[in-house]
Amino acid sequence: MQVAWRGVLPALCTQFKPDFSLDIPATIAHARHMAATGVSGLVLLGTVGENCSLETAEKLALLRAFGAEFGGKLPLIAGVAETTTALACRFAAAAADADVDALMVLPAMVYKSDRRETIAHFRAVAGATNLPIMIYNNPVSYGVDIAPEAFGDLADLPAMVAIKESSENPRRITDIINAVGNRFALLCGVDDLVMESHALGAVGWVSGLVNAFPEENRLLWELLEAGNLAEARRVYRWYTPLLHLDTHVKLVQYIKLAAALCGYGSELTRPPRLPLAGEERQRIIKLVEMARATRPGKIKEMR
Question: Residue 78's beta-bridge partner residues?
């Protein structure tokens, strides 16, 4: 199924059972809620999906189950986050056989590659699959920065079609466009910069907090697309305290707790991530409860 590379794309949480084993039915059930709000596709095995906490067999089992559930109905994008280029290439090829529609590829994990090594990694993965690729640039979390001009080194590869820009620097949107024009579809990868990124040219939003507030994500994005900036600002100001959760080192725990409080899945994460405790936990609960009690009026009318 062709990916439009526009609109809201949830970076979906992966659900676990109490014994920490993979819970595929619960993950699919959560995804159904996201799909019902009109998202443009589903991103599986991203950061929020705890990619690096899953074994390869688990990842492929999850992708196959999603292919059976959503294949031909909603585009599926699989994260590729492996420690070596060879492993990334093998997983990219295996993901294609699992009936996903595209890949979201990260630099190799652990080792902090330089520009030449990073480009070589992406070129190798592109050569291992026929699927379209979204380049995931997240120097804050993963320590490898793809500078705007470096995307020109990948522009000759037809498979490279989109960029998820998560540098937490909205200037990058303009710098990338100045460097490579409209060669790539640009997507915001930082929740609390979505309004700024859209204004500068982002055409999509790979979101984490959508796992907890799917209707609000849809509303905000539709307001931005419609050019209704006054209403978009109102919703954005309400939403921003929640969206800040996406930029913390514990974003996975924060987002999964928020989603669980909203009735979507479990907060359980695999160690070394532990459940939130004490003041930190109470602070996130209070924030989510306040947001639920003060939802924008249009959301209440839609319910």
Answer: 44, 103
pLDDT in tens, 6-26: 999 999 999 999 999 999 999
Collapsing DSSP to helix, strand or coil, 207 comes out as: strand
Separation CA 113–CA 107 (nearest Å): 8
**Smallest Cα–Cα separation from 149: which of 186, 178, 108, 185?**
178
Can you tell me the distance from the alpha carbon of 209 to that of 126, in angstroms, rounded to the nearest whole number? 29
**Contact residues for 16 (Cβ-Cβ < 8 A; gap 6+):** 22, 23, 266, 268, 269, 270
Paired strand residues for 79: 104
pLDDT of 176-186, one tens digit each? 999 999 999 99
> Please, what sign has the CA dihedral across residues 263, 266, 269, 274?
positive
Q: Which residues contact 145 (CB under 8 A, 6 or more apart)?
A: 137, 139, 167
- In the DSSP assignment, the letter for residue 84 is S
List the chain residues with pLDDT less than 70: 297-303
Q: What is the CATH number of domain 7-302?
A: 3.20.20.70
Question: Rounded CA gap, 259 and 231, in Å?
Answer: 25
Which of 121, 119, 100 has its CA nearest to residue 109? Answer: 121
Query: Residue type at 101?
Result: D
> Identity (one letter) of the amino acid at 92?
A
pTM for this structure?
A: 0.95
pLDDT at position 297: 67
* CA angle (293, 294, 295) in 5-degree steps: 100
Catalytic residues: 136, 164
- Kindly list the strands in the beta sheet with 102-105, ordered across the sheet, starting from the edge strand earlier in the chain: 7-10, 204-207, 185-188, 160-165, 133-137, 102-105, 76-80, 42-44
Tokens of 132: 């379209």
- Integer Cα distance of 180 and 184 in angstroms: 8
User: Cα–Cα distance between 203 and 197 in angstroms, integer?
Assistant: 9
